[in-house]
Every structure is written in structure tokens, then in C-alpha cells.
Amino acid sequence: MTQTLDKMDEFERLLEESFSKSFSVADIVEGTVMKKENDGYLVSVKGAKTEAFLPNKEISSTDESLEMGDEREFYVLKEENDEDGMLLSLKRLAFAQAWAQLNDAKIQGDTILAKVVSIVKGGVLVDVADLKGFIPSSQLRTGTPFDGLVDTKIEVKVLEADPKKNKLILSQRQAVAEQRDQVVDNILSELEEDMVVKGEVVRIADFGAFVDINGIDGLLPISEISWSRIKHPSDVISLGETIEVKIIKIDNELKRISLSLKRMGEDPWQQIEGQFEEGQVIKGTVNKVTGFGAFINIFPGVEALLPVSEMSDENINPFNTFKVGDSVEVLIKKFTPQEHRIALSVKDINKDAE
Predict the structure, then answer these.
(1) Angle at 229 between CA 228 and CA 233, to 5 degrees
(2) Which member of 52, 114, 133, 344 lies 3.0 to 4.6 Å from 306 by CB, making a disulfide possible if both were Cys?
(3) DSSP secondary structure code for residue 48 in this structure
(4) In this structure, are 111 and 144 located in the same domain?
(5) pTM greater than 0.85 (yes/no)
(6) Distance CA 92, CA 26 (A)
């Protein structure tokens, strides 16, 4: 009799185990939406002893409208026990799937779309399938974040996707470089020197700026931005600005184009021909002072050099004599506008006066 009871108990245990399974946190389970409650949904999970619960806060943005009877996969947030059923999440499942897709994109080298949500120290934060990613400044096409990027969607490559560390690092620069390689030959074949084109300023450096011309970046050197002396390209242009420029050189071998902004206007050196002559005394403004002389602006966009030797018969320090912005009377000692050179003198004015 005792053996018979033992066998019945064993049978009941095996029967119960056949209808129930043991689930752990992070498992993916199949379930059916059974009932809507104020703070979530009751879900029947295959193999579970009791109904599981899906809180509203654990529903992803893509699953906001659940219907009764929907059969879905769910992420186990909390295991069931003798008192409570399992706690489920659709949001965590979406995250897990997104991480898997991002890892695949990294392995395959695919380009994905990301939305810039904010500018932070060292780069920008982006949104990718409800995940937050980071693009370092060094991996931005512009090299520097700017306000115009926020709320825009940009193409990026995945550099690192680690769900355990919640670390997603992306690169816009690599995506742009790949696109450039694909279209550069076709674009260059459509461009010619002296052609005027429109482009977006995508990067600014001390030596100049890069302008996007139909998908490839052309270099706008600081010397080609303005006829007047400028300290930095940002004095004249800004990131994200659309400007008209002239193509001054196309290097098909290196696949590069050089641009000019200042040549969109008339050359001031041509304008001054006939307006000045050697021996003429004029007024100018000090633009820059160096150890060997001072640069004097005598016409918009035209600088002339006043050497130290032409400042005085005495040995003087130009930094103690002239300051940027000073108005100064000078004599044109040598005038060769064709070579973009004008030499000035102050001491010769004093000699003539004597």
C-alpha cells in the first residue's frame, strides 16, 4: 500500500512538472494577453503556474496598443514564486532585439539611422531604436557639435555595442567616408574649375573649412575665405551654413576639390589699379603688428607692408609704436598690385616735410 501511494505522489509530481516550467530572469517566454488592468496587463505564459503581469511602464513605444488575445514574446523581469506570478517586459525585449540588431550592424558594417537628441561634453547623444548612443566629437563629420544637429537624423556606423555595459558608440564620419567613396567619381565628373556651387559648411578648423558639395567635402582654405585678414574661419562662416563658393582646383587623382569664397566677389587688388600711385600719401588702419613691420589696410581687402626700417630713422620697437586699429598716415613707396604687393613708409613723409 505504501509503495502504491509513493508511486501516486511521484506521478502527480511528474504530471505537475509536465505542465509547468522553471523560468529565470532574462528568459524570453511566449504568452497571450488575457486581461487589461489599470496599471498593466495579465498574461498567460505557456508553462507557468500562474498568470504573469506586464506593467504599463514596461511596454515599448512600438507596442503601445495591445489587444486581448495577442500572442507575443516577453522578457522575464522577475521569476514567479509561491506568492506572485512572473513580472514581464516588452521594453526589455525590444532593447535586447535592438542590441542584437546593432551588434549585427557592427559585424556586417551596415549603416544605420540615428536621431541627435542633445549636445553633451565631448560629443552628442543620439537615439537608436529607443537606445541611447554616443557619438564622440572626433567621430562627427563636423568635428565639433553645433545646435543645428539637434533633432536631425544622421547616418552612422556602429563602433561598439555592449548591452552589459549599456555602451553604444557610433561614428558619423565613417558613414560619410563610405558614402563619399561610392559617389566621389560621379560627382567629380560633373564639376569643373571656376564653377560656382552651393554647399554646406560641415567642418571648421584653424586652417580653413570643409564644405559639402553634392556629397563630397571640398576644402576652403582660410586664405580663400576673405580678401581681408581674418584670425579664424569662424569669423566669417559658421557650421551648418549654406554658402556659394567657386571651385578653384580639382585633383582627380587624389579626388579632392579646392574652393574659394573670396573669389565670389571682385578682386580688390584689381579695383585699386589707377587709384593709387607711388609717392602718394594716404591714410590706413593697422591690421597686424609683427617684429619685422606692420600690415596696414589701405583699401577694403588690401593690406600693405610698412617695414620696421621704414618706420623711423631711429631703431624702434614696432610693438611700442603701433597698435592694431590705429589710424596712420603713410607714403606709398612701391606699388605693384599685379603682384599683390605694396610697400609703405612713414619716415619718408617726415623727410619730405623737412
Answers:
(1) 100
(2) 344
(3) -
(4) yes
(5) no
(6) 9
What are the distances in angstroms from CA 60 to CA 43, 94, 114, 205? 16, 7, 18, 42
The pLDDT, as a whole number, for residue 64 is 65
35, 65, 170 from 40: Cα distances, Å: 9, 12, 35
* Residue 344 host element (H or E): strand 341-345
Strand partners, 213: 216
pLDDT of residue 15: 46
CA 225/CA 234 separation, integer angstroms? 10
Tell me, what DSSP letter sits at residue 239?
Answer: T
**Cα separation of 174 and 156, whole Å?**
7
How far is it, in rounded angstroms, from Cα 349 to Cα 257?
Answer: 47
How far apart (Å, rounded) are the C-alpha atoms in residues 212 and 200? 5
pLDDT, position 228? 86
Question: Is there a contact between 85 and 72 (Cβ–Cβ < 8 Å)?
Answer: no
Which three cell numbers mark 66?
495591445
Q: How confident is the model at residue 219 (pLDDT cuts 50, 70, 90)?
A: very high
Rounded distance between C-alpha atoms, residue 186 and residue 75, angstroms: 48
Tell me which residue of 321, 296, 291, 319 sits closest to 306, measured CA to CA. Answer: 296
CA gap 246, 270 in Å, rounded: 18
The structural domain count of the chain equals 4
For 243, the grid coordinates are: 554658402
d(CA 302, CA 330): 14
Last residue of a domain, one of 229, 264, 299: 264
Residue span of the structural domain in which 347 resides? 273-353
DSSP letter (8 states) at residue 273: T
Q: Please state, in angstroms and rounded to a whole number, the distance separating the CA atoms of residues 59 and 93.
A: 10
Q: Which of 143, 174, 205 is the last residue of a domain?
A: 174
